[in-house]
Amino acid sequence: MSSKWIYIALLLGLISCGESDEKKPQPQPVDWDTNKSSDFNRGLSDKEADDIQLFLEMRPHWKMTKTGSGLQYWIYTEGDGVVPEPGDVAEIEYEISLLNGELCYKTEEDEYEEVRVDHSDIESGIQEALKLLQVGDEAKLVIPSHLGQGLLGDFDKIPPLKSLVVDIKLIGIKNK
C-alpha cells in the first residue's frame, strides 16, 4: 500500500511540473529608439542643470564662470605662480562633495595629491580646471556628472549621475 502512495505522489509531481494549457504572458516588444534615448538623456541633463542652478542661487557670493563644457569655477584666492601645462604634475589639495553637502573625498591634512595634467584618471572637470589655475589659486568648482563620474559613479562614494562640488588648491607644479 505504501508503494501505491509513492506512485500517486510521483504522478501528481509530474502533472504539476508539466506545461499548463494557460497562455504564459509574452514579453512586450521594447518601443525605444535613438530619439527616445536622446530625449531621455536631455531630460536628465536638464534636471541636473536645474539642480546646479538652484545650488548656485543659494550661494550668490560665488562668482562662477562657466566654460563651454559646463564646468563652473570661481577662483576665490588668487595665486601668483605658473599655470600647469599638459604633462606637468600638479600638486593639489581638494575636497569633493555632492550638491547636498555629502563629503566624498578629501586630501589629508598637510598632504597633497599629485595629478598628471591631461594624463590621469581624475575627473575630466578637475583636469579642465587645472589648466585654468595658477600655483597658489584656490577655487570652487561645480562639475556636472558628464565631467565627473558620469553614468556609473565611481562604485564607491560618488553615485551615478551626480554633480560634484570641488574645493581645490593648486600648491605646486612639477614639470614633465
Low-confidence stretches: none
Distance between the terminal alpha carbons, to the nearest Å? 90 Å
Taking all Cα atoms into account, the compactness measure Rg is 27 Å
Could you give a short account of the major beta sheet? 7 strands, antiparallel
The sequence of SSEs as H and E is: HHEEEEEHEE
Helix content: 25-40%
Compute the number of strand runs. Answer: 7
Q: At the third CATH level, what is the topology name of the domain at 63-174?
A: Chitinase A, domain 3
- The percentage of residues in β strands lies in 15-25%
- CATH structural class of the domain at 63-174: Alpha Beta
Shape: elongated
Put simply, the count of helices is: 3
**CATH architecture assignment name of the domain at 63-174:** Roll
SS class: alpha+beta
The overall average pLDDT, rounded, is 90
Defining key terms:
176 residues; alpha+beta; Chitinase A, domain 3; 27% helix; elongated
Which helices and strands occur, and which strands form pairs?
Elements (H helix, E strand, L loop, with lengths): L1 H16 L16 H24 L7 E2 L5 E6 L11 E10 L4 E4 L6 E4 L7 H7 L7 E6 L20 E11 L2
Antiparallel strand pairs: 1-2, 2-6, 3-4, 3-5, 3-7, 6-7
How would you describe the overall organization of this protein?
Helices cover 27% and strands 24% of the residues. It has helices at 2-17, 34-57, 124-130, and strands spanning 65-66, 72-77, 89-98, 103-106, 113-116, 138-143, 164-174. A hairpin with a 5-residue loop joins strand 1 and strand 2 (72-77). It is elongated, with a radius of gyration of 27 Å. The mean pLDDT is 90.
